Amino acid sequence: MKTLIMIAALALLPAPLLAQQPAEDAAVRTAIADHYFKAHATGSGEPLKGMFVEEGRMMWVQDGQLRVRTSADYIGGFQGKPAADEASRKRRVLMTDVTGDVAVAKVELDYPDMRFVDYFTLAKLGGEWKIIHKSFQRFPKTPAK
Questions:
Q1: pTM over 0.70
Q2: Which of 12, 108, 113, 118 is the S-S candidate for 136 at Cβ 3.0 to 4.6 Å?
Q3: pLDDT bracket for residue 19 (50, 70, 90)
Q4: What are φ and ψ of residue 101, in 5° steps?
Q5: Strand pairing of 128-140 and 52-62?
Q6: Distances in Å between the alpha carbon of 90 and those of 1, 72, 115?
Q7: Distance from C-alpha of 57 to C-alpha of 140, rounded to nearest angstrom
Q8: DSSP 3-state assignment of 77?
Q9: H helix or E strand, kind and range, residue 110
Q10: Cα–Cα distance between 8 and 114 in angstroms, integer?
Q11: Chain segment 85-131, per-residue pLDDT in tens
């Protein structure tokens, strides 16, 4: 029954949108890997310049308070060199959802002492996917005994 409902729902979508969906999903994933993951792997904010829109913001909750950082401050905060434990860090795109020129993505950064889940809002501007907002949650890991 669920399969029939899904097929019926897909039939309601315009054919061009259906054809575009896998390609745009792949483009969002590639943009994140080529820019965001590369910045984290190298420790350099350079790959993020132009990927985050100038007006973009990063927001998170810390100690019960909403924190906000501009994209320029975020990019400027990179140290310029890979982390000492870079070889053991893992990054992956968990999910994307694309609708026309906007998308969301859920990303995981799994590091030895911390796990982050990032949520991005992206927009396709000038033919390229750009990050317009980032929110995240951090999960400290407890050392194995």
A1: yes
A2: 118
A3: very low
A4: -100, 10
A5: parallel
A6: 38, 25, 10
A7: 23
A8: coil
A9: strand 102-110
A10: 42
A11: 999 999 999 999 999 999 999 999 999 999 999 999 999 999 999 99
